[in-house]
What does this fold into?
Amino acid sequence: VLNYIPRHKQWYQRRVRGAVNGGLFIKVGQHIGTLDYLLPKEYVQAFKVLHNRAPESSLESVKKVLTSELGAHPDELFSEFDAVPLGSASLAQVHRAVLRSSGSEVVVKVQHSTVQEHSKIDTIVIEFLAKALDKIFPEFEFDWLIDTIKRNLPKELDFVQEGQNCEHVSRLFNDSPFMKVPKIFWEYTNRRVLCMEYIRGGKVDDAEYMKEHNINKSEVLSYLSKIFSQMIFVRGYIHCDPHPGNVMVQKTEDGRTQLVLLDHGLYQTLTDDFRITYCKLWQALLKGDSDSIKKQADRLGVGKYYGLFACMVASRTWDDITAGGIADKNSNLDVNRLQEEAVRQIPQISQVLNYIPRQLILILKTNDLLRGIECTLLDRNTQGVGTFLNMARYCLSALTTHKLNKSTSFRRSFVIYYTFAVCLAKLKLLKFLYWLSLTRVGRWCENLLPSHVVV
It folds into this structure.
């Protein structure tokens, strides 16, 4: 099969689009399309078409939904409405339009007319298939998949909730100029229609677009890791549908690189205890501290699967993690070795996913986005030490804030803040040395970068 796909890539992508009949099945395909670091490239490329070119609804169907939901024909509401959608996803498709009332250029997200009905059927089918697989292959467990779908799908089908999430994230990241969230036009929004600001840009994994617009790929990866590290470690509010079709990159009028975050239908809110424990787990992974990894994994409810879980979070083998930490400059992402391990451990991975708290499943999905885009924009075997340094920075910030909030004396608070300042200075120096080591002039200074990060 792997020899066949590269020679017939376009045909295979059309078959993928045709075979995946919509809704939940497309979501599964979209996630497969982000696993560059885990699956063979040929499979990943075939499924990437589903990120923004899933099967489309007809224009007539779209206009019927708009008329039904907004109480007026689209011609009365929009002076322009593009017949060809900008993109189509699992639950909806988006069209560029211009509002008659203000002349504003907008994007109208319209839910597929059959999604509500098909989603119930798809859920039943997936649940049946999962139970059948449990009987045929008892070593595989898929209860986690059914539970996740049932819990999250109703939220994603409510576009009012998506608009509210969009505005909440905009407020949270108001001080981050490298991130933008579209403005919502509430008078043209309800449960099945979402009207928002139109923003031009390219997909975050489109290397050709970045080259044409003089956008630095390393800068994009840095901003991406900062956004999602803040969400996970600091804010405790995580975008949970992070495939490349939902993140765009653009050059602003003043020449800055900016990421645009789309599709805010599903977010996961972490409790403070869970968030801090996850921060401590990442701190242990960065250090390669196996005892601490086991301790924090136990607190997260992972139990006996802590070793495999750590490998899934870090996208590293256990030997690589314990050899010097995941921020070790010599710990490159060996894609071939990782793929071999993943195939060998599939039954155990399914057991881990069935065992761990549901919050962690969506965090793992977010981790997949970062790894997949990194492998797409850089060499497939290039490990983003810069990404791990960004994560270390936000882990440190979250843990320091937590300690300061619990401090009961000025002396203790001073020690905490002093330790934070010293560690932050070390991280900034490490980041500078890492950047310098990637330049031609700075190759000689590569040995200056310590073997791992201690925070």
